[in-house]
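Chapter summary example: a protein plus 1,3-dihydroxyacetonephosphate.
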Amino acid sequence: MRRKIVAGNWKMNTTPAEGAELAKAVAAGKKEICDCVNFIVCPPYTHLSEVVRITRGTGVAVGAQDCATEEKGAFTGEVSARMIASLGVEYVILGHSERRQYYGETSETLNRKMRQAYANGLTPIYCVGEKLEEREDGRHFDVVKAQLEEVIYHLTPEQFERLIVAYEPVWAIGTGKTATADQAQEMHAHIRRTLAAKFGATAEQTPILYGGSCKPSNAGELFAKEDVDGGLIGGAALEADSFLQIGKAFLK
Ligand code: 13P
């Protein structure tokens, strides 16, 4: 049985005070939901310490949205994996399409970030996904395969065992357009096959999350698919109720 995971990527939203309220509401609501669903919240760096404190012992885990490529030193504005891990944060999102697109992150950058994440005990949530024109040209499977081969294939088998992957078609992020459940399943199966080609049967255990306008109204249909193991949620994770509803979609 693969883990079922609902992760909230808050992106650059909420003040620390608003984030604390949101974390409290998620932690309170989580109590009503079976431990079979793993909840992760990923607030901005400035909120991490407080959100870790609020969620401790509640079954809600905390992730960061990024980390630095380097271990430490003269890198103004960067936050290292070690700093993040030392707060009690367990996860880190890496390779989000917004980082690739707006901050020029490449596979080379991401290999370095992955090394830092693993060296400091963080579990990466590695994002892949094609742009609209790549899907329209029929290149979506190749694009996602390359994003996996260029980064994930460099992991050791032990590192791979801890990995979480998120498929986020860029055209579905924040647009209200969702991949259909069949489109998601087709890509998730492709991702699992690509991972299995390198890591064998271990890939059967890798949680593969769907992201891109996932909300309470479509989560049930998406999560019912064999290779969809949960969601990486943007907008709908900014309201505790809708985020919790998405988690409950597993239980229907
Ligand atoms: P939305 O759910 O707002 O489309 O964002 C998805 C996402 O990018 C999560 O990382």
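Key point: Residues 142 and 222 are 22 Å apart (CA to CA).
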